[in-house]
């Protein structure tokens, strides 16, 4: 039982620190910075880079406000204005908000949960480089004057090739998809870290609320992002290859894009809000000096929000002509979601009421949150009502509402979080008064900008217009908003200056300056790269254990085997399960991101014939990742504490990688479900169906049947490769699986050859995507099969060690299930 | 972890029911079900009401029998999950009994 884990003997803290620092630190120099995979470094990079994008998005906002300050604004021409408002929205949503929350999660979670690093350090680094490359592509397009200009939601047919020729829409589609890959990687990382790397003895119901919030956020990212990834792929296929998913004349429907976009877009609001709410739930009890009120109610509210937020997306489409009953479903859900949000608001107010609030700078930002977000929530309930929505749709009222929600529900809490954790980041106190001045400028500037914008909208001013010469009654309102915007910008500049001053000139902070209880403060300041010299367990549950942990009295002290070791625990109870060895500094993530980036750039340039080279580079990089995953020998259990030794992860089936694969397949399954939704939607709703007859010949049916049988055989072989891993037949099974997977891929190719031209009708295009999905997963399964075969041949498997076979089986099973559905659907469409 | 699955059961049931009723709504409109009469009224609203009621009955069963044996907090969260799902299904899908289907 975890409650009985005895303490390790105390050692000299400084010696232990040097031992850990040698193993966990980033390499020196700029080359070393490219090789870092440490969660603190990567998390801070995410946050710093997102703040740069926030500044760029803010400058664009100032340009918009300058243009709208007078009714005949001549500051920007219409074409440039369109690019600027599109880029402002896209940058703020995709390049600021999401990476900011990812960065906070990556940086904070291991600390607050009592771990040394994230579950997949290289994945975190890959996510960062993908984000940087994707963001840079999008930003470069602005500098080159070919930025996206169709709005941040890229509605078709406006964003189709006919109405948006050139590459501006492709930049958005490819760049955003690149960034979303980064987000899905972060979501996998965060979920596995929360479930499997909490301190020993920390059951889920004892987890800090931040853990629950980030778990909910990451789960939503896992399910919310794939619909947009699919939508982006479909739209790019239409733009690049004329596959008509959204072309109404050939069986497509523009509304499919809106559904896929808002299936992502509305949960996105809660994806942004939940981590911010986690920050509030962490900070408020610290400054109120009482425990949070209603822990269980808050967790239940998070649960409610996570689910309900997926039932709201159509409220962005209330004016597109959907039947009343469907509108009513989504209207009711949109109103209902206010309930769990309110539960949290009341819990926070109750906590402050029960305690004695110290109005320090982070709490000022918390007050800013309350003043702003509650108003945004209330206008949200107004917009959830269909009759009001019809009147206010696409007016400045909606612009005001969304800024109250996003700035109130994300920016203010994030500023609270940054000012709260800055002593841990910089090891310094802040310089007095600057932060307060910044807060008041931002608060007054924000409400000065957006409060009156509600009225501007109610007076009928549409969004996204660059001039309003016939409406002088809007002018003074816009002028006041523009002045407010400039005040707010000055406030943000001062905020950044405050952070910089703290980093450079603040006096040294003592440990735990806020007297918080959570484990993130149980370490020296600034936080060392390994977080804890010895890991907290049941005897060291909070920040008071700072000295025993530094002296090595916790679990798994030091790094005596000269490698980065972390403790993996049971997902539910927090019982210690095994010791995982995580990778150290490596440039592989940046090379992998470069390979992925080259694929996107080649697509962007229209050099499709060169993309196989990029795909080969991606496969090469993927193969290199597997090199770390395996051990040529069995190892003795590792001493964690007196009387407690645990096996290494290579000798365990339910490894972090296994959990990560299961998590990834949830996202993958959601993407596939979104594709099935697309098939169903077009088949039932879109005009110009049924598709022209084609008739599947015997050859196609045989190819489909043969492919399915081959995939089933490969799945069985993957199972045998694991169960017979300590016998020579294990390698034979792996070889059989690889050959069967290869045969299946070949037969899928034959089938694709026999189908009709995907450009003919949306049905044919959907078939192409279904087959492409099967081929892509077949390629991944084949890679894993080859890795298992190498494991078996190179002695990396034994009775204890399983190599890549368990993960291969997971992918095989997924491939089998989705391919069977896809092939069944192709045949069924023909019968129907 | 069994209690986590129990906690998720109610919201997951809501998700499945919401999707099913919404899909049935789309299919019924496409297949002209409102024009098809049954002894209990037009086929389309009838099918959706029956599906909704069946879902509510399942929610009732969860509230009655889906409990956790662990700590008090686990039991609270499982109960909360049951009720969140039930209230969400009742509140978001009640339009099936008050509105015309495809207008």
Task: Walk me through the structure.
The complex is a heterodimer of chains A (832) and B (103). Chain A has 832 residues and is mostly helical. Chain A is built from 24 helices and four strands. A two-stranded antiparallel sheet of chain A has the order 1-2. In chain A, strand 1 and strand 2 (576-582) form a beta hairpin. The radius of gyration of chain A is 27 Å and the shape is globular. The model of chain A has no long low-confidence stretch (mean pLDDT 95). Chain B has helices spanning 2-30, 43-65, 72-93; strands spanning 37-38, 41-42. A two-stranded antiparallel ribbon of chain B has the order 1-2. The model of chain B has no long low-confidence stretch (mean pLDDT 94). Chain B is built from three helices and two strands. Chain B is mostly helical. Chain B is 72% helix and 4% strand. Chain B has one domain. Classes of the chains: A mainly alpha (832), B mainly alpha (103). The A-B interface holds A 203-205, 295-297, 299-300, 303-304, 306-308, 310-311, 323-326, 328-329, 332-333, 336, 340, 571-572, 680-681, 684-685 and B 1, 3-4, 7-8, 11-12, 14-15, 18, 21-23, 25-27, 29-30, 71, 73-74, 76-77, 80-81, 84-85, 87-88, 91-96, 98-103.
Cα(first) to Cα(last) distance of chain B is 45 Å
Cα(first) to Cα(last) distance of chain A is 59 Å
Assembly state: heterodimer
Strand content of chain A: under 5%
**Under the CATH scheme, which architecture of the largest domain in chain A would be assigned?**
Up-down Bundle
- Counting DSSP E segments of at least 2 residues, the number of strands of chain A comes to 4
The major beta sheet of chain B can be summarized as: 2 strands, antiparallel
